[in-house]
């Protein structure tokens, strides 16, 4: 998830010695868990009750942190609450700014006609919906280890939506809607699997690498398992795809002035994010924001260019802040709620307690498998952080196993990974929690098979 956009928060948490107190036996802490479960249930029922997913988790976050504050006041440690909350807010700030930049670039490329032109090219080449399904899946698997799974998923989903004729056309055609749903699930699984065998493809892989548990090149040992994790559900999905071609384009599409420059700036922005982290040990968010500044400068040129005025004479002059405003704010606010809810439960000691039970009672293999399941329900970042904080005695193969399961386990549910949550916002009303849940069985087959392949390679046992 997101290169390393929130790793400094975790690093500083460990270095300052902020260890949560075990307050899990308090009735107040039970209320916090209940509040989280109610909010999460409302998120799951979004399709039924038509309540946007961000609203319940934002309210739950406020309630949970009030409970955290009261609980720590009772033990005379109220000064630690601010420190815990500051770390959580730092996590969210990095995530928010990273996502804002990625979404703004995608919106700008869409406005410049990049995705419409790509759609026209794919249609002109005669690709069927099944062909486009595999193209976007392969690209998601290949690109996510180099960039990150979230940005990759957003890009590929934009291509799928554009190829299908836009959201309005998708909602009016059941076959097209089914294709988009399966393509989005395929992209989420492929992006998460691709990010699992690279330190930069997912935040959990980066955390394991920074902790010195696996060497930089050691992550390549997860490539066979990650490939199996994606290919098995992908083949299953492909059998249910409608046998059709994309809707023909009746209107001529062409790239607007500056489209290729915007694409180039986006690639350079990803390069900046990686470079800022690797060379200067700065959060990748800073590289992304620098890239946004470059886009804003170029946007000023577009706004005042005579050639751009010719392109935009029907819809008004280009304004970069219009593209920034079009970001999926429900998704951004949802991440706020989830990070603070999970952070609050962590401050009450629940994450450490669960991890202790896993490794102390079940043993490493079962525990590592369940970590992946937990990451689909809660979030892989705090779960992995709890594992690293416990620092159990694990072999090299077991550290790779927990890295794999934490990375790909989030694919089991749409809310289990940043890629899934972002796509629910991008394809609102089409790719939903329930539409993803219908195919969880196929994703679970890939999850189990990838674990079996990994255990065979590293000779692990239960």
Automatic annotation (TrEMBL):
GO terms for biological process: sodium ion transport. One of its GO terms (molecular function) is antiporter activity. It is a multi-pass membrane protein. The keyword Amino-acid biosynthesis does not apply. It is found in: Membrane. Keywords: Antiport, Ion transport, Membrane, Sodium, Sodium transport, Transmembrane, Transmembrane helix, Transport. The keyword Cell division does not apply. Residues 42-407 form the Citrate transporter-like domain. The chain crosses the membrane at residues 27-45, 57-75, 87-106, 127-144, 150-167, 179-197, 217-237, 257-276, 333-353, 365-387, 399-419, 439-460. One of its GO terms (cellular component) is membrane. Belongs to the NhaD Na(+)/H(+) (TC 2.A.62) antiporter family. PANTHER family: SODIUM/PROTON ANTIPORTER 1-RELATED, SODIUM_PROTON ANTIPORTER 1-RELATED. This is Sodium:proton antiporter.
């Amino acid at each position: 998830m997101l290169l390393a956009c929130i790793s400094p928060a975790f690093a500083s948490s460990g270095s300052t010695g902020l260890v949560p107190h075990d307050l899990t036996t308090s009735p107040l802490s039970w209320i916090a868990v209940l509040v989280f479960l109610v909010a999460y249930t409302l998120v799951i029922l979004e399709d039924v009750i038509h309540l946007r997913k961000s609203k319940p988790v934002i309210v739950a976050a406020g309630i949970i942190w009030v409970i955290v504050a009261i609980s720590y006041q009772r033990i005379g440690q109220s000064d630690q609450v601010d420190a815990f909350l500051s770390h959580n807010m730092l996590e969210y700030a990095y995530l928010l700014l990273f996502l804002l930049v990625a979404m703004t670039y995608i919106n700008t490329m869409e406005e410049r006609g990049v995705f419409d032109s790509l759609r026209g090219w794919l249609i002109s080449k005669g690709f069927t919906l099944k062909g486009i399904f595999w193209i976007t899946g392969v690209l998601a698997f290949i690109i996510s280890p180099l960039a990150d799974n979230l940005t990759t998923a957003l890009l590929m989903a934009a291509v799928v939506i554009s190829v299908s004729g836009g959201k309005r056309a998708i909602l009016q055609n059941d076959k097209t809607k089914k294709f988009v749903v399966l393509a989005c699930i395929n992209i989420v699984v492929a992006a998460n699997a691709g990010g699992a065998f690279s330190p930069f493809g997912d935040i959990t892989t980066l955390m394991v690498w920074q902790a010195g548990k696996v060497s930089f090149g050691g992550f390549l040992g997860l490539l066979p398992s990650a490939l199996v994790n994606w290919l098995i559900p992908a083949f299953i999905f492909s059998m249910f795809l409608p046998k059709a071609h994309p809707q023909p384009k009746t209107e001529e599409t062409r790239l607007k002035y500056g489209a290729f420059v915007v694409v180039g700036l986006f690639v350079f922005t990803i390069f900046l994010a990686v470079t800022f982290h690797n060379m200067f040990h700065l959060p990748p968010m800073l590289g992304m924001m620098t890239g946004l500044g470059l886009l804003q400068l170029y946007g000023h040129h577009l706004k005042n260019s005579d050639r751009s005025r010719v392109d935009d004479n029907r819809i008004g002059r280009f304004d970069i802040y219009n593209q920034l405003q079009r970001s999926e704010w429900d998704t951004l606010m949802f991440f706020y709620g989830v990070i603070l809810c999970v952070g609050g439960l962590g401050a009450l000691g629940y994450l450490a307690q669960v991890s202790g039970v896993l490794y102390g009672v079940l043993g490493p293999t079962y525990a590592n498998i369940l970590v992946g399941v937990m990451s689909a329900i809660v979030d892989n970042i705090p779960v992995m952080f709890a594992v690293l904080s416990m620092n159990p005695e694990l072999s090299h193969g077991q550290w790779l196993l927990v890295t794999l399961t934490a990375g790909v386990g989030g694919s089991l549910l749409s809310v289990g990974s940043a890629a899934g949550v972002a796509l629910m916002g991008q394809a609102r009303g089409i790719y939903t929690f329930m539409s993803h849940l219908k195919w969880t069985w196929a994703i679970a087959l890939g999850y189990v098979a990838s674990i079996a392949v990994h255990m065979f390679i590293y000779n692990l046992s239960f």
